[in-house]
Amino acid sequence: MSTTEPAFTPEDNARIIRRVFDEFVNQGDFSVVDEIYAPDMVDHQPLPGAPDGPEGVRYTIAGLRQGFPDLHVTIEALSAHADYVVIHNTWRGTFTGEFLSMDPTGERIEFRGVVVWRLANGLITERWGIGVESAMLEALGLGWLMSGALARKGRRRGGGTDLADLAAAAAALTGTDRP
What we know:
With 179 residues, the protein is of the alpha+beta class. The protein has one domain (10-141): Nuclear Transport Factor 2, Chain: A, CATH 3.10.450.50. The chain contains six helices and five strands; from the N terminus they run H-H-E-H-E-E-E-E-H-H-H. It has a five-stranded mixed beta sheet. The longest helix is centred in the first third of the chain and has 16 residues, at 10-25. The radius of gyration is 17 Å and the shape is globular. The chain starts with 9 loop residues before the first helix and ends in a 5-residue tail after the last helix. InterPro entries: Cyclase_SnoaL-like (IPR009959), NTF2-like_dom_sf (IPR032710). This is Ester cyclase.
């Protein structure tokens, strides 16, 4: 009798990633985090101030849901290969709550991005957002922050841009307390 862990197929991994959006992001069921994220998972593009691991995932989605209470993410395309799942998705929501120290505008936003996930033994171990941060800033009217030297100055470990640094730079450039 074998004591090895059951192998997870790409289809199993795809189902796990669908749960991220169907149950956690879109419905706000935070209990899903404990079921599908590894304790040492790494989110390469968390919200500024997010702790490491699953608590950081909770922090990031809680921050997004605070700023955009009607947040809904649609998976437009999904591809699963071995331990990786890649999705192209559309994020939609109305900016009615505070987000990254910005006051709400009441505007409805929509942006797209690609997210790459790595899984091991049925748990999410890593997440990379590609274009998600820049598309979100563009939708919030702050796309200019991602261009030129300002964006290079805001680069951080993991290849993402620290949104808090960009927001502070925007405030400095515009002479306001908030972007």
